[in-house]
Design brief:
CATH architecture of the largest domain: Alpha-Beta Barrel
Strand content: 25-35%
Bound molecules: zinc ion
Oligomer: single chain
Structural class: alpha/beta
Number of domains: 4
CATH class of the largest domain: Alpha Beta
Helix content: 10-25%
Number of strands: 28
Largest sheet: 6 strands, parallel
Length: about 450
């Protein structure tokens, strides 16, 4: 009995072993070659199937919907029916981000920093193809003369960049002259130095380090050059110059010269006035309140550009001398921007004899008329009034007669006219005034530093 059972068991064992052997010999093995996919790449699973005898890849059904737009694990499913096998196998595919984030530095690299100063961070940004803006994850390390910026994205990709710091000052200091860099004074008159400031990108205010050399002999005509020099603590040097021209006071003999002057422009009439002047080859003077292309044309064609005022607002400019000079500085800057020159010939709004300024500051004209000369300006009033800003504003005939009846061969005829809105009659009278002047032996000139300064008596 016992032997019988043993024998039976042995046969079963043999059968099982044989079956297992056959099963494993023909078993289709499924393997995947590419179980990782780069973010954003095109992914096609490479799956192979084989047993001991042959490649069964063609029998395999592979289902993949791996989406590489997202980091993480996704699945590829494979299926094969072969002989007595029915096998399903699932592979886990890792979609990975292997791209490094990008750090962008703001400011200069290498950065120039003043010796003994600390570098002041100019900023940076960090972006990652997958995580987006990761600027707040940037860590900063200072190692000797470099600053290192490091950032790691959520997938562990690290970027690191360096900003080099050069501790040196290569920039020259800047000397700014107060007043003009070209000053004209008459022989024997006082020369007053307007002063200067000097600043340096690293040292700050170094005005006290400026060395000025040169002398002005006010008793001898000529051009004197004053030199201003400053060196910063890193040895960068700057030099600027100021020319002081000492000239003879002009003597006027009365040779019948007409100086046409136009106040308050430029305006829509300026082009027409310039056309008439240029056509008749007459030079004139414009006391401007602003500057534009016609101001430039006038300057280029030999007319004189003088400063009138920037606001032409009596209550402002005559309230105090600070206002007046700030306004004068504004028109000077405006003109300089257009013609590249700072005129020193000026006319007070309302003339130096105006009484309107009494309403705002008693005595201001007495002060200003002296102070402008101290500051190197020459001011002009007029001695022939066309009355084109008065009752004759629209009467071109009367403007014409107001001018020609007051001309004289024995004086410098400085004629007041206006180049502003509403003065069409002035432009009309201009042609006839020029015609009269030319046929009666007058010559026309633009005002310059040799023109005797026709001035009213001051009333305030
Ligand atoms: Zn005016």
């Amino acid at each position: 009995m016992m032997v019988k059972i043993l024998k039976k068991s042995f046969i079963v064992l043999i059968l099982i072993t044989t079956f297992m052997l056959i099963y494993s010999i023909f078993y289709p093995n499924i393997v995947i070659i590419n179980s990782e996919a780069a973010l954003g790449s095109k992914y096609v699973p490479e799956v192979k199937c084989y047993n001991l005898f042959s490649d069964l890849s063609n029998e395999l059904v592979v289902v993949s919907d791996v989406n590489t737009d997202k980091v993480g694990v996704q699945l590829v499913k494979c299926k094969i029916k072969y002989l007595f096998y029915d096998i399903n196998k699932t592979f886990r595919i890792k979609v990975i981000d292997d791209e490094k984030p990008i750090i962008i530095l703001k400011g200069e690299n290498p950065a120039l920093v003043c010796p003994n100063n600390d570098y002041e961070e100019e900023g940076f940004t960090a972006t990652d193809n997958y995580d987006g803006d990761i600027t707040n994850k940037v860590t900063i390390n200072k190692i000797e003369n470099s600053i290192w910026y490091t950032v790691k994205d959520n997938s562990g990709n690290t970027s690191k960049i360096e900003r080099k710091i050069n501790f040196e000052d290569k920039e020259e200091p800047i000397i700014t002259l107060k007043g003009s860099d070209s000053v004209t004074i008459y022989l024997g008159n006082l020369y007053k130095e307007d002063g200067f400031t000097a600043s340096d990108n690293c040292d700050g205010d170094i005005t006290n380090k400026v060395i000025s050399t040169g002398n002005v002999d006010i008793n001898k005509t000529g051009t004197y050059t004053l030199t201003y020099e400053v060196v910063d603590s890193s040895g960068n040097k700057s030099t600027v110059y100021r020319n002081v021209i000492v000239k003879n006071k002009p003597i006027y003999n009365g040779n019948g010269v007409i100086y046409l002057t136009f106040d308050d422009g430029p305006s829509y009439l300026t082009k027409e006035i310039l056309d008439i002047l240029d056509e008749t080859n007459v030079k004139a003077t414009f006391f401007v309140t602003s500057a534009n292309e016609y101001t430039k044309r006038a300057y280029n064609n030999g007319h004189t550009i003088g400063l009138h005022t920037y606001t032409h607002n009596y209550s402002y400019v005559y309230a105090n001398s600070e206002n007046y000079f700030s306004d004068l500085n504004n028109i000077s800057n405006n003109v300089y921007d257009v013609i590249g020159v700072r005129p020193k010939i000026i006319r007070f709004p309302g003339g130096s004899s105006n009484t309107v300024s009494r309403n705002y500051n008693s005595g201001i004209m007495s002060y200003l008329t002296k102070e402008v000369i101290n500051r190197g300006y020459v001011y002009f009033d007029w001695n022939v009034d066309s009355n084109d800003a008065g009752s004759d504003i629209h009467n071109s005939n009367q403007i014409y007669y107001n001018v020609i009846n007051n001309l004289s061969y024995s004086k410098a005829n400085v004629v007041l006219m206006h180049d502003s809105s509403g003065h069409t009659a002035t432009a009309i009278a201009l042609r006839d005034i020029i015609k009269y002047g030319k046929t009666n032996g007058y010559t026309f000139k633009a005002i310059n530093y040799d023109t005797p300064p026709i001035r009213h008596s001051v009333n305030n």
